[in-house]
Design a protein that fits this description.
By secondary structure, this protein is mostly helical. Helices cover 71% and strands 0% of the residues. It is elongated and about 115 Å long.
């Protein structure tokens, strides 16, 4: 190594030792950064796998939910066939007459019950 400036043997040793120390510091910093990068990458990959697994489970349950919905729908239709006859259900048609007023919106409603103060 030819340097145009006259440097003594002592200064050469100091410059070489300083260069080695600077190189080691940079190598250590790079190693720490790389280790943190790997840990954070691994955590991100694991969290992403968990998210994807949950989404996959939801997709796989779609058929089961659809079958349950169809079974409930057919059961409801069977129950409706047994309850409803004609255009209006008989219970709903008879309900206004049992209260003493008609289904017409202009008909008077029965008066509300009298107000009573609360006793303590």
């Amino acid at each position: 190594m030819n340097i145009p400036i006259k440097i003594g043997q002592r200064e050469k040793k100091f410059l070489i030792a300083g260069g080695i120390i600077v190189f080691l510091i940079f190598a250590y910093q790079f190693g720490v950064w790389y280790k943190n990068f790997r840990v954070s990458s691994k955590e991100y990959i694991e969290s992403r796998q968990i998210t994807l697994q949950k989404q996959l489970n939801k997709i796989l349950q779609k058929a089961k939910i659809k079958n349950n919905f169809e079974a409930a729908d057919t059961e409801l239709k069977e129950l409706e066939k047994g309850l409803v006859s004609g255009d209006t259900p008989p219970v709903a048609a008879a309900a206004p007459d049992s209260f003493g007023w008609s289904t017409c919106p202009c008909s008077p409603r029965p008066p509300p019950p009298p107000w009573r103060p609360h006793r303590r």
